[in-house]
Each structure stands twice: as structure tokens, then as C-alpha cells.
Amino acid sequence: MKILMLSSTFPYPPSRGGTQVRTFNLLQYLSRRHDVILGTVRSPDVTEAQIDALRQQVTELAVFPNPRLPPQPPLIKGGLRLDPEPDGDFLPPPLNQAWLFHSHQKHEFCRGSASVPTPDLDDSIGRSDQEGRHGGTAPTDNETALLNQGEGFLPPPLNKGGTEGGFSEIIGKFHRFGRFLLSGTPPNVLSSYSQAMQNWADELVTAGKCDAVTCEHSVNEIYVRPEWRQKLLTVANIHSSVWGTCREMLATGTSEKPLRDRLNLPLLARYEKRYCSKFSRIVATTSTDREQLLELLSPRVQVRGKQDFFVPPIDVIPNGVDLTEFPYRSIDPGGHTLIFAGAMNNLPNIDAARFLSLQILPPLQQRYPDATLTLVGASPVPEVLALGKLPGIQVVGRVQRVAEYLHQAAVCVVPMRIGFGIKNKTLEAMAAGTPVVASDRGLEGLAVDGGPQPRRALRANKVQEYVETIASLFENQQLRQELSVNARSLVESQYTWDIIGRQYDRLLQF
Asked: How far is CA 500 from CA 51, 321, 451, in A?
């Protein structure tokens, strides 16, 4: 089977965030059994060695430059000078102008290095710069004209001779919202759309060179044309509902900008309905996500007994864990040490880190003065770095092996208040054998407590619940051991990437 996988997030190494981890492990599994063709976008920190390593995992690799950047100098590889693209337009050129080279029947379309990062696709949908794109096809002529205006689609700032962050910021917000309202397209997805990647995907599908197309995260739906569903299997591996996430943030009071998100909510509902209707199948990571999508997509108006848009089947395929990267701990360190791990430039993780540091840890330290918290994760923003100045808190940023830090902690706390979908951070802590205390959001999709199953984690949502639950683990070595063993057993039996990969493979062959 020939599978075209589309991911605007470069999925290697599989340690940058949840999207990279899921995408890489699924493509790695599928590549053992099928011909996988991967189209992706190069972020500025991606090295040639990482591109070479990713190329070894797939049959064909196409790497496109960040479309928001001006053309880069010509790239020289292996003694071959690759022709530069013409100057002028910031957009990537059509396919016939892309740079091409071959390596062991693996291909790459690549222009030199980029200097502006691709947004982390795991960031909360509540941020307008992290939202997905509308459910249409490639940009219309009008949208392309807007794209050609350059990066960000905003009027130039008034920093010179104007007021920084004042009038120009207001105008920019109206401009972005107006474009979203008229096009149905959240701004960030248009800004990261690659015309070259679209041309490349169009040619592959038109030529009949693939049997299935998968979009690895909802933002990649932009590349899938509605008519493709009539000729081949198209799958949107969405991770979680953008509309549901925005609605939850408003309901829980965790939205950064409630007015903006209230305005965006109906637009996100329209967007999600449109893009879902293009696909043969939708994949979510938890039953909660599936139920949210069904609520949104359930036809409220029928024309002559028929629903007015196509509602695809929605399958649940959770995340997994690489057990070699997260081995089971050899000892219980005991003590009063806590850990929270996750990308620290991601809004749900920022909120969780602050909630844990500012509201949960202080009353816990009143009871256990030596209690400490380690915050582990790449790209900590200033709000997270500032937490390191508080007593007992260490912010360590990106690390080589998260498991080593998990093994040193008595308890892993996952106090998520925002975001749907199964949490890699929870599964990884459970695989490492570190007892977990988490919120409903942190434990979503996991059968860990209640009913006939053994206890695999403890649940808390309010500050005092966290304090009492964490204290019970500090005081009870037997309880820590019970959770540790049961959690590892659950991951081994249900959440390895081989198990998850088989589920994805079966869906693609349905």
C-alpha cells in the first residue's frame, strides 16, 4: 500500500512535542509494512543530520521550507549545486522549481535553512496563532493574494514613529479576525500554508501514486481536496477538536483572551464541520474527543430527509509510548520530590506549570518544607522561567532523557486544566513507573481508577485534592508501588507504539 502522510510539523526527533512523537511513531510503524511518502516543513532548528535520519524511515521524503520566509541562498549538497529559486515572492515556487535530490530512492525537496519556527501544533487552540485552517481546499485566488502580501498578513508595525503595541496591534487584530470571518480560515494555517507542498501532493494524487492520504494533525487538512475522497481513502488524524478546546477554555475560565475566543468559537465550529466533511475517516485520541466531534457534526437540519453535509466515521486511536525511551524505574526514590514535564511554550502546559507552582506547591510545602518541584520541557517561556525563582522549584528546560528525571521524582503531577486528547506526558510517567496524580484532563482516555480495574493513578482537580492526594503518596510507599506496577502493566498491554500502530494500519486498510 502507498500512503501519503502530510505533516507541517517536522516529526524528527520524536522528542520535541506530542505532535512529533505521534507522527514519527505512526510513520515508523507503517513504513515497515507499506511505502510511506512523507511531506513536511522544515523548522529552523532542523539539521541536515535530522533530515537524513528521517529519510531512512520512509520511502520518499519531501521537505519544504517555511513558507513565511524569504528565499535562502542556494544549497550545496554532495557536490551538487541546487538551483536557487527566483527572488521576490516569499511563497515557495511550484513543484517544477523546487530543488530535488535522491538518496537510496528517497527524495527531498528542500531549500536552505529557515529562521522562523513553525508553530507548535500542540499549543492551545485558544491562541489565535495556534488554530487550524478551514475545511475547504487549497487557498482561493483571493487567499493566495493575501498570502502574497507576506509574512503574518498584518499591516507593518508602527514602531517607527508610532506607538508600539497600540493602534497597530488593534488594527492587526481586526485584520486577522476579518480574514477569519470572510475566509473561514484561522490565520496561522494560511500563514504556514506551502503552495509547493500543495502542488507536490496534487501531482501525486492526480498521478495515482498513493492509495491513502493521512493528515497528521488537523491543520494539515488544508492540503486535502474534497474530491479526493471519491478516489482514495483520506484520513484526518486530528488529535483533538479545535472547537471543543476553545469551548472548554471559555467554560473553565482559562482562556487567555475570552472576548477573542467567544468571537472565534462559532467560526471554529464552522471550520471544523467543513474540514471534517472532506475526509473518509476522522481519528481522535480519546472517546471524549469523539463525542465532542459527534456533537458538533450531528446534523441539525436535514434537506428532504438527508443531512446537508457528509459526516465521516470517527475512530479512536490513542497515543503510545516507546518503552525503550521510558524504561521502568529500578528503585523508588521516596522523599518529597515532584515533577511536571511538557513543552513549556505550550499554553495548556504553561497554565498547568503555574497552577502547580503557585497554588498547589505552597500549601504542600507548609506540610513538607523540603518538598521540591522540577519543571522539565523545551522552550520555557518567561512566565515559566520566573517560577524557577520560587523556593523549591527548578526549571531545567529541554533534557536528553525525560525518563531520568521521572525516575528521580516521588510523584509526577499532571494538573492540566486546558486541552482535550490523551496526554503523552501521563503515559510516559506511567511507563517509567513514577506514580501519577492528575486532573480529569490529564487522565482523559485512560482507565486508571474506579470500577473493577486496579488503581493506576490518582485523580485530583481542586487545590486541596492535589495536596491531600500527593501527601498520601509521600506517606505511603506501598501505595506508590501499587500505582507504579499497575501503571506500567497498563502501558505494556495497551499503549505501546506497536499496538497503536497496528490500530492505525487496520484503519487505513478498511
From this structure: 25, 9, 24
Q: What is the pLDDT of residues 343-380, one digit of tens each?
A: 999 889 999 999 999 999 999 999 999 999 999 998 89
The amino acid at residue 370 is D
pLDDT score of 23: 95
Q: 289 near 420, Cβ under 8 Å? A: yes
Residue closest to 483 by CA, chosen among 447, 433, 441, 443 = 433
Please, how many CA atoms are within 13 Å of residue 379, restricted to the half-sphere of its CB? 15
Q: Please name the residue that has the C-alpha cell 502580501.
A: 149
Distance CA 385, CA 382 (A): 5
Average pLDDT over residues 414-443: 93
**Pure H helices in 368-476:** 382-385, 402-407, 424-432, 463-475
Q: Which long-range contacts (CB under 8 A, 24 or more apart) does 290-297 make?
A: 290/314, 290/315, 290/316, 292/241, 292/243, 292/244, 292/420, 293/238, 293/241, 293/244, 296/241, 296/243, 296/244, 296/269, 296/272, 297/273
Task: Give the model confidence (pLDDT) of 187-246 as tens digits.
Answer: 777 777 899 999 999 999 999 999 999 999 988 999 999 999 999 999 999 888 889 888
